[in-house]
Amino acid sequence: MRLLISAAAIAAALMLPFAVHAADAPVQVTLDASKPGAVIDRHLFGQFAEHLGSGIYGGIWVGKDSKIPNTRGIRNDVVAALKALKVPNVRWPGGCFADQYNWRRGVGPERKPAVGEPNTFGTDEFMDFADQIGTEAYLSVNLGSGTAMDAAEWLEYMTSSTDSALGVERAKNGHPEPYQVAILGLGNESWDCGGAMSADFYVNEMKRFSHFIRSYSATSNQPMKRVAVGPSGADTSYTEAVMKAWNGRSWSWDIEGLSLHFYATGGWPPHMSDIGFDEKDYAVLLKDSLRLDDAIKTHSAIMDKYDPEKKVALVVDEWGTWLAPTPGSDPGFLVQQNSQRDAVVAALGINIFARHADRVRMANIAQMINVLQAMILTNEDKMLLTPTYHVFHMYVPFQDATFVPLTFDAGTYTTDGITLPRVDAVAAKDKAGKVWIAVTNLDAKSPVTLSVSLAGVKATKASGQTLSAPKVDSVNTFDAPDTVAPKALSAKVADGKLNITVAPASVAVLGLE
């Protein structure tokens, strides 16, 4: 027996050093604050609210007579939660809904319902909502089924003075002062639900809309930015056609952005479960989400060919996870739960945007409330914050901060034949000079320790938050809304190094002090 035990002990001893090294050896990270990169535009943290499912009705709008606490029909609890995120912009009214939207039916005292759309939440209500949460408006005009005149009059209604008949109409509807429209989307997915247009046909339409639609506001500090429809995923036809036209543009039209839509699905059509999934499904979706980096590189290379000065921003105005609808929900409402896996995907996406901040200067996660990878879920008078919401809240210090390069060996995490980087991290310096570090541990089984060398940074400690969960498929429910919630995290700096350990499948954000 003793001999057998000794043999087993020897075998274990031979294997143990490798196992400990693989799981526990600190990841060596070097931060160099003396070599700042691009500004991580706050608009990278934009949101998206489409007239889809209960994203608007029940999610934002409950009506002025509702027993749910509201201000002019808009939920107070949702407004408070979004204000805490410092939401920079909200894209509305779509999505595919935008290219069938008739703004006329959604203004004035007598609304004209459409099929499945009461139009009680229209232009004035959206602008009130934007004002309440302190965000800028990103409006998508109907380029698919509408006309340039329809869109031009919509902008005139919103932005002109009362010298205009449409400005007078707006004033009669309760808002004498012109609205500010910061960003204008010239259509949506025109290659598909927005009209099934070829790239060249879209370019011709887009140029007309760009010329005739303008903001009349004289009080805006910034001119309205126009975003053209761009690609979905790897297809490059729209990128090539729009950027080639932009490069040869005349005085009569211009754009400031080109959109990109990217969803992590684990394979089309969306079929992956939003709850009760295993580690393999966790890894499959993460691997799919990392394709975003390649998509950005592909389209940025084409944009660089026509726009080496990077005047036109790449605007990822739809991104996130798209899973199978929650069982029992209306499939058309795109309802899905939001798990710790979604939180990790959100962090990886933000990190990718930060690394490409010179070209990617705006993004809108899909969607804000009750649809796809939502920040917030509501059920009548109840509201909960999702793991994705918590990630966006933790990353608030990165808004308009300057990218600081990190170098590290990400290592590998492998499960069921799927290999991923084990760890991801980004850093930035805010306007006050404080350095922030965000770490994502993709490994679903093991914690990871990072040893960060702080070149050019004087600090004695770091503090912030970490978001972890009992399991990768842990979710917040109305009965248990805090199953996945941030917890305080702190670490000391010794000999110019910050050592932090983060849990499996978790996200951490710390500020150096």
From TrEMBL:
Domain Alpha-L-arabinofuranosidase C-terminal: 317-506
Documented EC number(s): 3.2.1.55
Signal peptide feature range: 1-22
Gene3D superfamilies, A to Z: Glycosidases, Golgi alpha-mannosidase II
Keywords: Carbohydrate metabolism, Glycosidase, Hydrolase, Signal
GO molecular function: alpha-L-arabinofuranosidase activity
InterPro entries linked to this entry: Alpha-L-AF_C, ASD1_cat, GH, Glyco_hydro_b
Name of this chain's protein: non-reducing end alpha-L-arabinofuranosidase
Organism of this sequence: Pseudoxanthomonas sacheonensis
